[in-house]
Amino acid sequence: MVITKNRDCRVCGSPDPITLHNIWYRGMYGQLCTACVLAHHAASFCPICFDVYEETKLPPPHLRVMCLRCPAVAHISCVYSLPSSSSSSSTRFHCPQCSIPNFTFFNLVGSAVQNGNVITEDLAKQLVASAKIASMSLHKAAAIARENAEKRAKEAVMARKKAIEALDKVSFLILKEAEEDSRSSSNL
């Protein structure tokens, strides 16, 4: 596995090494900042509580709602817990990324410093969610790589077997031709 040595986000160019995650993104290994991991994997987590959905952990349809503009999936309970939620908000849900102009995940500049901490609880949840998504991405890429390697190994075994059979056949034909040559030369 080759991880890029560049310490900038592949998407936005953020140079902050603390928030960069190694990830399989668009068919290549690279580093993405926390904000870009979350922005480009909207269907992988609840955009309100930042609970990450593993492949089989997506909430059942009656407990989730999708953003009307992007593939973000939120827990209905999280949508109802929002200050401006009403009974109709679950049917017309827009995630924060789609509903707030200039929204960005993991906004250190825009976050208020609380009790001397730059990382708030919400930012910590975002950082953990993006790390989980990156981890799942690398595990999935590793599984695919392993599957491809096993397939190539089987192909190599079959190719070796065919090569041995071909060499055996060539050896047999050479011996047969040599025998015929020796018979024809002894008949002369």
UniProtKB/TrEMBL annotation:
InterPro entries: Znf_FYVE_PHD (IPR011011), Znf_RING (IPR001841), Znf_RING/FYVE/PHD (IPR013083). One of its GO terms (molecular function) is zinc ion binding. Residues 46-99 form the RING-type domain. The keyword Zinc-finger applies. Signal peptide: none annotated. Keywords: Metal-binding, Zinc, Zinc-finger. PANTHER family: PHD FINGER FAMILY PROTEIN. This is RING-type domain-containing protein. It comes from Fraxinus pennsylvanica.
